[in-house]
Amino acid sequence: MLQKCIERLENEGADIILFICTGTFPDIFKSTKPLLYPQKIIHSVMPPLLGNSKLAVVVPHKEQINQSIKKWKETGINADVFSGSPYSKADEISEVITELNKSYADVVILDCIGYTREMKKRVSEGTDKSVILARTLVSRVLGELLDS
């Protein structure tokens, strides 16, 4: 289905195609236009940005924690990973803030396109840690490609 969507977007005149998910996708999709995968962008940018800082990662679901730990280890980063859905009616962000305050991490990444600027602000104010929002990091890279 994704391949058909890519082809439709190309036919409709898209210059760049961005996957709106920070998950891992197989390298099987074909396109005549650049395909941007947020996970690849984030995992390429974060290691040099961190330096010696410790990273905490927030993902939407508990089931994603082990996968996230593994994926970050592949970049050379031993991250603390926590879960808190940006889509839940319950206030899972407050619970994540409590857990993040127990972490020795200096930097937090909200690793899902669903996390909002308001959530970033709450995590930043609630933890006094630097917080990176996946959606804005990826959109800034996309903006550089589109800015001509």
Defining traits:
alpha/beta; Rossmann fold; 4-stranded parallel β-sheet; two-stranded parallel ribbon
Report on the structure:
The chain is an alpha/beta fold. The chain has a domain of 89 residues: Rossmann fold (3-Layer(aba) Sandwich), CATH 3.40.50.11230. The chain has six helices and six strands; from the N terminus they run αββαβαβαβαβα. The strands form two sheets. The chain has a four-stranded parallel sheet, with helices on both faces. It has a two-stranded parallel ribbon with strand order 1-2. Helix 4 runs parallel beside helix 5. It is globular, with a radius of gyration of 16 Å. The protein starts with a helix and ends with a helix. The relative contact order is 0.16. The mean pLDDT is 95.
Q: What is the strand and helix layout of this fold?
A:
Elements: H1 2-11, E1 17-18, E2 35-36, H2 38-50, E3 55-59, H3 65-73, E4 80-83, H4 92-100, E5 107-110, H5 117-127, E6 130-133, H6 134-146
Helix pairs in contact: 4-5
